[in-house]
TrEMBL record, chain A:
The lineage of its organism: Bacteria, Bacillati, Bacillota, Bacilli, Bacillales. The chain crosses the membrane at residues 9-27, 98-121, 133-157, 169-191, 230-252, 272-298. Keywords: Cell membrane, Membrane, Transmembrane, Transmembrane helix, Transport. It is a multi-pass membrane protein. It is found in: Cell membrane. This is Peptide ABC transporter permease. Pfam families: BPD_transp_1, BPD_transp_1_N.
UniProtKB/TrEMBL annotation, chain B:
This is ABC transporter substrate-binding protein. GO terms for molecular function: peptide transmembrane transporter activity. It is found in: Cell membrane. Residues 26-65 are annotated as: Disordered. Pfam families: SBP_bac_5 (PF00496). Belongs to the bacterial solute-binding protein 5 family. Residues 112-493 form the Solute-binding protein family domain. Keywords: Lipoprotein, Palmitate, Peptide transport, Protein transport, Signal, Transport. Gene3D superfamilies: Dipeptide-binding Protein, Domain 1, Dipeptide-binding Protein, Domain 3, Periplasmic binding protein-like II. One of its GO terms (biological process) is peptide transport.
Amino acid sequence: MVKYLLKRIGYIILSLFLIVTVTFILMKAAPGGPFASERALTPAIEAQMNEAYGFNDPIHEQYFTYLINAFTFDFGPSFKYVGQEVTEIIGRSFPYSLILGLEAIFIAISFGVLLGVLAAVQHNKFGDYMAMVIAVLGISVPSFIMAAVLQYIFAIYLQVLPIARFESFAHTILPAIALATTPLAFIARLMRSSMIDVLNRDYIKTAKSKGLSERVVTYKHALRNAILPVVSYLGPLVVTILTGSFVIEKIFGIPGLGSEFVVSVTNRDYTVIMGTTVFFSVLLLFSILIVDLLYGLIDPRIKVTSKEGDK
Amino acid sequence: MKWKSWSLLLTLLLALGVLLAACSGDEPAESEDDGTEEGNTEEPAESEDTEGTEEDTEASASGDGLAADQTFDINIRTEPPSLHPGLASDTTSGAVLYQIFEGLMRINQDGEVEEAMAESYDVSDDLLTYTFHIREDAVWSNGDPVTAGDFEYAWKWVLNPDNADTDYAYQLYVIKGAQAAKEEGASSDDIGVTAIDEKTLEVILEQPTPYFLDLTAFYTYYPVNQKVVEGATDWALNVTDTYVTNGPFLIESWAHKDQIVLKKNPEYWDADTVKLETINMYMIDDENTSLEMFNSGELDWAGDPTDALPLSAIPSLKADGSLNISPLAGVYYYAFNTEVEPFNNVNIRKAFALAINREGIVQSVTQREEIPAMALVPPSIWEESEEGYFKDNDVETAKEYLATGLEELGLEELPAISLSYNTSEAHAAIAQAVQDMWRQNLGVEVTLNNEEWNVYLDSMSAGNFQTGRMGWLADFNDAINFIELFQSVGGNNYTNWESEEYSNLIEQSRTETDPDARKEILREAEAIFMEDLPIAPIYFYTNAWLSKDFVKDLEVSPLGGVQFKWAYLAEE
């Protein structure tokens, strides 16, 4: 197990290295720089700024500085928000994204699984069709439209929830639902097909023939096996939710990290680009690792360590 | 191996994500700055608007009674990049700094410069030496007196080449020795600013500068409390004990990217004038959301200058009479690259400039009552500009110019022209309209070329364009803002156009001390420019905003600034 973990962490570091390198190359290749503005600086001032930020150093030196910064998680100050440390920006923005993300993941999984199971149990009946209509709608309606619709219904028309900002639990409801819609629908479809598949398996028939109640069969025997594809979807889900929060954060005026991630690219705010990229990558790589470990817990048939670890 | 392919896939995905993100996204707002000017906007209270709503009449009927709760809510869209007066260089930061700091002068709601930190000032006969006398009762928020030394320290700090982030240092270049100290390594002792004593500040200018007093109201000219700030590099990053200010409002809290709260400063020298007790500045980036928050009463103000109204909402807001519009000293134009064919030919440039129907654009595309521009300097600075130098949409003359131009270039017909603009709904709509006009009026194929903001600036600077959209907003209320732009190639002049005569006139204007004669010289320069037409001006900008009826005495200046010092909320 330890050996397996070490190996996985080794791969994570390798991936990070590649990500940092690719980001650096793309960042430098993109036209424009952090000091570009409609109001051009005088050449002397621009030269001073380039010097102060080390843009006059040879490119490989800049690259190594970046690499060291990335692995020590010290990115220096932002260019756009003069003097603010990147780590501080991440530290203050991430909690918003985290709360929003966790709420959205919770909604997506609980309602997605519920909807999927209902659809499978009611296979080819009214409930199935209803659930799948909802799922198709959820997948095809983009989150920003969903956000606008929710805002209109609940905040403007019914006036039961706030329009925007992020101050209390009530503020978090609409953005979390808007963010959760697409993954919710996806999970519902995933769950439905896997559940239908499992329900037709022989061991389910055995269980039923043993006289176990429908409820026990469905929830104890079928669900545990059918949920595996959903668990493997958790990794990508975390990514979708975290990076996809940009639009939602913008619409609801939430000071989260998703907008920081996207806006830094437009601003060519090199240090923030690097900081958020590394941060999101680490998050993503570890969430995939955790999902893989979870996999083994849920389904004993899968031994993550079986190949080399055991003996 | 399974894990390996996973990580590889992820890397690629992430790289793709970064690439995609680089292809879209927002453009930073057109840079604009500076304080209040020219109070020619109607006060919402006394609005003669006959279509005024019932609330309107009600509000004026109840007289000038102040509402019990003087809390004003406004959206400033984004996190202010810096609340250090010496480092700030954008409107959002400016909108906050104007309220919490104060310079030697302040521009009042009638657009006139009035004494602020300075109680009085003397100007020498050659207009080169200004002596400011600072108020005895001017104090910092920590109780220290505001001294002449604080100004000297702040200005010299900005002009210190070791402080690299001071983008706006050039705002101080009218002071003697300032540019030399910042750019050529001259000693800071030679900068023409001296604290003669505790309360007397002497400033020596490079040249007589008629707008110098306007400049001292600008945030780069604000003082900082030397005692507190000296040695503390990051005093302006957060609101702490070291964030010491001297303006009509105090900053109570700064939740980054979320909300700034300002409170009235009871120790301010003119505290009796200040009526607002609290100002909440929210940072909501989405225009539609902030408009909805305004409609639901969570905001008291929507739109310019700190926020923007969604393009699609303008027609209906105009129809129901709630939209306020005032001029903004700025010009939207298409720059011609005068080094590439066919725009190296003046007649071709004229043909293209004349073949645009500006009235049509402002009526049906932008719809914010912009003024069609047939001149360079906006009418809020020079009234003559409402007329302009040529006739709008003069297709007949344009065709004649085109024929002459083609003959001079030895061409049968024009090759396809590319028209560049940076990503934005509004720029795209205008470009499409112009594309259509040029195609119909001149029979020329026009391809549209849309680029992301940073990429766009890069191509413009590299001269990699034929015609490209640009805009310029004044820093202070003077024509030199616009004339100076095209003095030499480089900087913000993307046209590659230069004229010795034009440049000489500008230099001549700098030493001219008589205002009328100076204006004559600058008018002459503008005439030369408009004869050569390295740009096709499209329109002069306007401010467009909504405000609640009970918001009084809050003016939007033609310079895009807003001052809360005089504002108050009337009883509803």
